[in-house]
Structures are given as structure tokens and as C-alpha cells.
Amino acid sequence: MHSTIARFLLCGYWANIVYIIGMIGYLIIDTISYMHISFNSTISSIIYMILAIVFVIDAILYTMDWYMYAVKLRKYQDQPIHYRSEFVACIFQNLGSIFYLIGAILAFEKIQVVEKKVLFNLFGIISLLLESILTLLGWIIVFRRRSSKTSKNSCNFQNVYIWAHALNIIGNLIYLCATILAYYFYRTEKIINSSHVLLLQICGDFVYLFDAYIYHECWEQDKQELYTITENQSLNKFYLEKTDHQNKSNENR
């Protein structure tokens, strides 16, 4: 039974792990680039491209996770699919990750396509910002529909999910500012790697990394709740079958 639950939760688990690994990678390379502006651009471009690929994989894993809890875990297969706004959010997340990957690939073309690279990064972060906003809105809508106001899953600031979603938005806003600033510096002063931009990105990396940790804690919470619900359902089924068996035995006497 637990193995079945674990199978459903596996995509979410690995999505969070990949998120954490990816953000550690971004934090390291951004810090190195900030401390050593003359750091080999080819090596950094390769690392950024690898990290962009990591986040494309991460977006796919989060989409698979949505499919698991929104579609596969429905009590009845003819029930309507909930979390539809989160599905749209997954689309934006995949688009944003692909835009970032294109921007990372364009970085190998050096000066000729710097503006295009920054524009693709801008498209990417706008997509990710829309994704994070839709995820938060979808989460609020779902939990407002729930009748229980005292549940630990209710929509309030004690719920760890609201902090995870909020931090994701904050991280995206920081990166949006960094991308706009990078575009401004390139257009006005032809500066490609501004220390101000890198510093903003490092701040965003810290926010994202903490956010990734909180999302993992959310996953742990969901896993425990799902185990508890499944255990209770199994116990209820057991007692119902036991009662039914006893009733039949009494009738046969």
C-alpha cells in the first residue's frame, strides 16, 4: 500500500530534489561569476546551459506530479479534474524553462546575440512569474472551497504552502528585476556581466533555494497526510468487512 502511494508521490519528490540541486548550482556559478568577473565565459556558459537543461527536466517532473495528484489520485475517474490553473502554470513553467535553455545556448554566440539572449531570459522569467502567480491563485481557490477552516491545510499564514508559493513569486520578481537591469546595462553601456545584476541574481538564488527546501517540506507533509488517509480508509474497510462477516455468521446460526 505504501509502495503505491510512494509511486504517486515520486515525481513530486524528484522535482523538489532537482529544484534544490539546480538552485545550488546557480548559486555557486553566480557567486563565482560575481567574485571573479573575468571567469572563463565558455566554462560558465556550459554550466548555465547544463543548469537550464536541469530545470527543463524539473518542469517536466512538476507537470508529471500535477498529473499524478490532479488526475490519477481522484477518488473516481469520472470526477472533474481539479487544479486546472496549476496545469496552466505547468505550461508556463515548461515554456519559461525552454526560453532559459534557448538563452543559455545563445550565450555561446558571444556578443552577436547578447540582446537576443537577454530577451529570451526575459521571456523565460515572465513565464515563470506567471506560473508562480497561477499556482498561488489556484492553491487559494482550492483551499477556499474546503469546508474545514481549522484544518492545518486551511488557507492561512500558518500553512507552509503559502510561504513556498510566496517565496517563489519573490524569487521570480528578483530575477525579473535582474534581467531588466541586464538588458538596460547592455543597451546603454554595452556591459554584459554587470556586478549589480549578478548580486541581484545571487539574492534570488538564496530565495529560490530556501523556497525549494520549503517545497520539499510540503511534499513530506503531503506524504504523511496521504499515508494517514490511506491507513484510515484501509481500517474502515477492514472493520466494515469484519462487521459484514459477523452479521452473516449471526444470520447463519
TrEMBL record:
The chain crosses the membrane at residues 12-34, 46-67, 87-108, 120-142, 162-186. It comes from the Eukaryota. Keywords: Membrane, Transmembrane, Transmembrane helix. This is Transmembrane protein.
